[in-house]
């Protein structure tokens, strides 16, 4: 009787059931699997279920989870083999890389249970925390979404939507903002004089988030706000654009402005787009097969074709294609671009002023160039802005290079206008595991794996959500008072 009532342990479970749990919809991460393997011998065995080239149930589970990951399945057999070799044959590290690339560019799930995303505009910052959107800084033309009476917010204040909205993606530009909900709805606010907010019935500022009616039946998953234009990525992998098209940045083969979102038809014929990015007057789109397409202004060689001609339609970057390089993420800076490939390597091109390209000099790169100084690191996120670049690697360390810009590179021991010509680790954040980084004109913000937020750089317009500080040369924690209203914090 006593044996029958004895509590079952993990060791009593059938091995096939343990494997099913490991590969179930719980979406365990590479770190989770490694912890299980270290803490319980059950997970270290193979029990006749594991192929000979894998060591344990955990390895097999990591292999299976990789095999169903959207990035991994889009890779060629050769690219899959290269990624495994890059990760030292460790499937848990491969899984961590794949999940990190997805998560660190989108919504971060922290160990504290929060879902977060942070985005820097020119003089403001937007934050998603558990589906609620907060904003702080300068409210030029209503970009903060708090109404016409607000010119500045000195703390993160929740934005009110017309009805409850579960926001999953935001984009911040100079003077307008865009938001995507879990249902795929798109809201915009800010300056609409160029119709970049997608509301063709008015060219006046939109002071509170307003639903983009033209996309009401077109579910979206990502938005990218440029200067006076906006790019929308649908859940089906199609791209829409609206706003000004002086340089062809809307991708429709002409320079005509579009008052409401219009489908970029040429991208629809080449396979689903998985990521978009918008510079001041150019656009980047990454397709499922790892090809980067660019269009718009060719200034500073940002389009990556080796010339400075404008492109009115999406044009593939052939240098990547010729070398068989599969790009998974891109970031569009003011004058340069940074890209991340499926092996965690980083490439930069465009204007090299102040060392923004990270090659140890200030020479322009007319086509993508591998950042050799980071070859020994597995990068998971790249971020470019005005003459500066950040690269986040898989162990949570952050590297920066380019112009210090009022301390916005995060090196307290350097002058506020110094140049950092090669990637350098931000030792000021070495005690934290960074999960996401975003940078504006003169300020930068990061989110840690514990859900803490740190900011550094210029705070003249409260873009770092601090009332008293003018500059933050040292990364300074930013607190979010959930449920706080405008009273006392908005001017």
What are the low-pLDDT stretches, counting only 5+ consecutive residues below 50? none
CATH topology of the largest domain: Methylamine Dehydrogenase, Chain H
> Can you name the CATH architecture of the largest domain?
7 Propeller
Please report the first level of CATH classification, the CATH class of the largest domain: Mainly Beta
Instruction: Please work out how many helical segments DSSP would assign.
Output: 9
Q: How big is the Rg?
A: 23 Å
Structural class computed from helices and strand pairing: alpha+beta
Helix content: 10-25%
Residue fraction in strands: 35-45%
Secondary structure tally: strands: 29
Under CATH, the homologous superfamily of the largest domain reads Regulator of chromosome condensation 1/beta-lactamase-inhibitor protein II
The major β-sheet equals: 5 strands, antiparallel
Number of domains: 2
Mean pLDDT: 91
Q: Report the end-to-end length measured between terminal Cα atoms.
A: 72 Å
Strand order of the largest sheet: 1-2-3-4-5
Shape: globular
Structure description:
By secondary structure, the protein is an alpha+beta fold. It has 2 domains: 11-105, no CATH class; 108-478, 7 Propeller (Methylamine Dehydrogenase, Chain H). 14% of the residues lie in helices and 35% in strands. The chain contains 9 helices and 29 strands. The protein has helices at 2-5, 15-22, 30-39, 57-67, 70-73, 77-86, 91-105, 265-268, 318-322, and strands spanning 108-109, 115-120, 124-129, 132-138, 152-158, 167-172, 176-181, 186-190, 206-211, 220-225, 229-234, 239-243, 258-263, 273-278, 282-287, 292-296, 311-316, 327-332, 336-341, 346-350, 365-370, 379-385, 388-393, 398-403, 419-425, 434-439, 443-448, 453-458, 471-478. The chain has a 5-stranded antiparallel sheet. A 4-stranded antiparallel sheet has the order 6-7-8-9, with no helix packed on it. Strand 10 and strand 11 form a beta hairpin. Helix 3 packs antiparallel against helix 4 (57-67). The radius of gyration is 23 Å and the shape is globular. The model has no long low-confidence stretch (mean pLDDT 91).
């Amino acid at each position: 009787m006593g044996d029958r009532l004895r509590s079952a342990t993990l060791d009593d479970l059938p091995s096939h059931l343990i494997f099913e749990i490991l590969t179930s919809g719980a979406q365990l991460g590479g770190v989770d699997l490694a912890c299980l393997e270290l803490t319980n011998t059950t997970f270290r065995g193979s029990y006749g279920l594991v192929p000979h080239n894998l060591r344990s149930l955990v390895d097999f589970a990591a292999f299976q989870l990789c095999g169903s990951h959207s990035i991994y399945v889009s890779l060629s057999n050769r690219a899959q083999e290269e990624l495994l070799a890059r990760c030292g044959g460790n499937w848990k590290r491969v899984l961590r890389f794949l999940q990190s690339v997805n998560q660190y560019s989108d919504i971060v799930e922290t160990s504290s249970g929060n879902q977060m995303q942070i985005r820097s505009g020119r003089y403001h910052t937007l934050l998603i925390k558990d589906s609620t959107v907060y904003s702080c800084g300068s409210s030029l033309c209503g970009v903060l979404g708090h109404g016409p009476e607000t010119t500045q917010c000195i703390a993160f204040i929740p934005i009110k939507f017309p009805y409850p909205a579960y926001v999953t993606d935001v984009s911040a530009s100079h003077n307008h903002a865009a938001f995507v909900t879990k249902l795929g709805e798109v809201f915009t606010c800010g300056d609409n004089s160029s119709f970049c907010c997608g509301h063709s019935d008015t060219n006046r500022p939109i002071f509170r988030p307003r639903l983009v009616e033209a996309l009401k039946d077109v579910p979206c998953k990502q938005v990218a706000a440029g200067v006076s234009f906006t790019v929308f990525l649908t859940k089906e992998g199609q791209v829409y654009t609206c706003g000004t098209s002086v340089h062809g940045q809307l991708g429709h083969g002409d320079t005509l402005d579009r008052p409401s979102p219009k489908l970029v038809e040429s991208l629809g014929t080449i396979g689903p787009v998985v990521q978009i990015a918008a510079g001041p007057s150019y656009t980047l789109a990454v397709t499922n097969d790892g090809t980067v397409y660019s269009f718009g202004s060719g200034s500073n060689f940002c389009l990556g074709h080796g010339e400075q001609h404008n492109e009115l339609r999406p044009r593939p970057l052939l240098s990547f294609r010729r070398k068989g390089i599969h790009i998974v993420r891109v970031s569009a800076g003011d004058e340069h671009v940074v890209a991340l490939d499926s092996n965690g390597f980083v490439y930069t091109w465009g204007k090299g002023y102040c060392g923004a390209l990270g090659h140890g000099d200030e020479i322009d790169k007319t086509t993508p160039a591998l950042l050799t100084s980071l070859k020994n690191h597995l990068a998971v996120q790249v971020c470019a802005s005005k003459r500066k670049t950040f690269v986040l690697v898989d162990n949570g360390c952050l590297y920066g290079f380019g112009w210090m810009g009022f301390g916005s590179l995060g090196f307290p021991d350097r002058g506020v206008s110094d140049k950092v010509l090669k990637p350098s680790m931000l030792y000021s954040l070495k005690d934290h595991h960074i999960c996401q980084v975003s940078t504006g004109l003169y300020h930068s913000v990061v989110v840690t794996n514990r859900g803490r937020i740190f900011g550094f750089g210029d705070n003249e317009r409260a873009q770092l959500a601090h009332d008293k500080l003018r500059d933050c040369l040292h990364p300074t924690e930013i607190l979010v008072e959930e449920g706080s209203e405008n009273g006392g914090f908005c001017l």
